[in-house]
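Technical annex B. To support the medicinal chemistry partners, we prepared a structural model of the target in complex with flavin-adenine dinucleotide, based solely on the information shown next.
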Amino acid sequence: MSVEVTCTINGEQHVLPVEPAETLVESLRLRLGLTGVKKACGTGDCGACTVLVDGEALRSCILLTASMQGKSITTIEGLGTPDNLHPVQEAFVEAGGIQCGFCTPGMILTAKAMLDKNPRPSDAEIMEGLSGNLCRCTGYVKIVDSVHRAAEKMAP
Amino acid sequence: MTAQTFYNPASIAELLDVLDKFKEKVVIVNGGTDVVERLQTGRVAPPPDAIMYIRNVAELDYIREENGHVAVGGITSYAEMLSSPLCRQFGGLMQALAEIGSPPIRTIATPAGNIGTAAPAADCNAALMALGASVVLASKTGERALSFEELFSGPQKTCLRRDELIREIRIPVNKTATSAFIKLAKRKAQDIAQVSACVCLEAEGDVCKNVVVSLGAVAPVTVRARSMEALIVNKTVDDAVAAVRGFVPSEASLRSPRNKAYKEAVIGVIVGRAIKKAHAETAGRK
Ligand SMILES: Cc1cc2nc3c(=O)[nH]c(=O)nc-3n(C[C@H](O)[C@H](O)[C@H](O)COP(=O)(O)OP(=O)(O)OC[C@H]3O[C@@H](n4cnc5c(N)ncnc54)[C@H](O)[C@@H]3O)c2cc1C
């Protein structure tokens, strides 16, 4: 029996008829074509599928879409546009925090949620904040630099 | 995909009605960090006719102190506990929670879900057992309380009836005890414990007077290691640490030849470290 879910995705209201056990990553990618949300491990371990739900970074591969009633979801597509990047996106581009790019949407959204709570994180806090986001290219050094750079850009 | 019904109750009464109606054919989804993946891979048995999401039952979301214990509601998350001044007194619990998963997991995952999954290596369960916590289970027919020692019947198995909700966790306040948790894992974030230990200690000066030791990942269920406690009581911290080193508690039952020798060798080391850490907190309190 499908469930009707009303939620906001990247600022737009959607009414989605979904299966009870359908995951948010499936709905976003397959129903809405938001392929910036990456699916890799499917077990909540790698962080590639991270989206913001009411401002909190969460794993969309282990969230049921049916539970998103009334929630506001932001994917990487809703953070900035190619002509008008969000400061965290800009910082990742400038500091070389992106190599193959697969982990990047999850990294950026996790960093955004962290910076909203802690605008000036230390190296240790950044590493702890991103400890659940796996990157197999960069070695993380440039990712940590990117987050510091984003913090500077976002400082009032 | 099977024809399932989705329930999103707003009250405990509504929730218990659904549990009563479907019993083992409904699966509760709390933070979902364990159960959603199991649903995807068809590992929820028996296959559920209904999925019930319980995070909108606001009356299950609280942390409060009453009647000598801190009460934690059935949907309260690790993140809420980590930022709660009431939980700060339970050092071992805070240390265990701070190492569970990563921030996006702790934002949504719950101690009730840790109990429901009943993994042998579950971190929160080990901490709550050492602290002497109990669990209040609710069903349409009433409530009962179980201690953590009574709660688990096997790997991924609890003594909960299928119409029961984990409504509340109660952690007794003990101003004379301190606690510490140590998790041995291959990597710091998002790893399963090889061995974990939580020690809750009442000391007089350097002498261990009362102690509870719980262990994770050394048996099919989280265990209380009374055989180890007996070696610690009435000894100085240094003597207790020496006594547990190399000791394999009778409560451990390691069957996998792959890691048996390793785990047996480290249990005493981990417990020793936890004793020292708990004692250091005692000193810090005075
Ligand atoms: C990336 C990652 C890292 C992790 N790291 C750790 C770790 O370091 N240590 C650790 O111990 N665990 C870890 N876990 C496992 C998991 O996060 C914990 O077990 C968590 O406590 C589960 O809580 P939940 O609310 O998400 O449970 P859910 O997945 O919602 O539920 C788990 C089980 O409990 C039942 N249940 C939940 N709430 C209730 C209730 N109120 N009443 C009755 N039944 C209920 C459900 O039906 C289900 O069977 C990790 C998981 C992931 C995905």
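Notes passed to the chemistry partners:
Residues 254 and 260 of chain B are 6 Å apart (CA to CA).
Chain B has three domains: 5-53, 60-172, 178-285.
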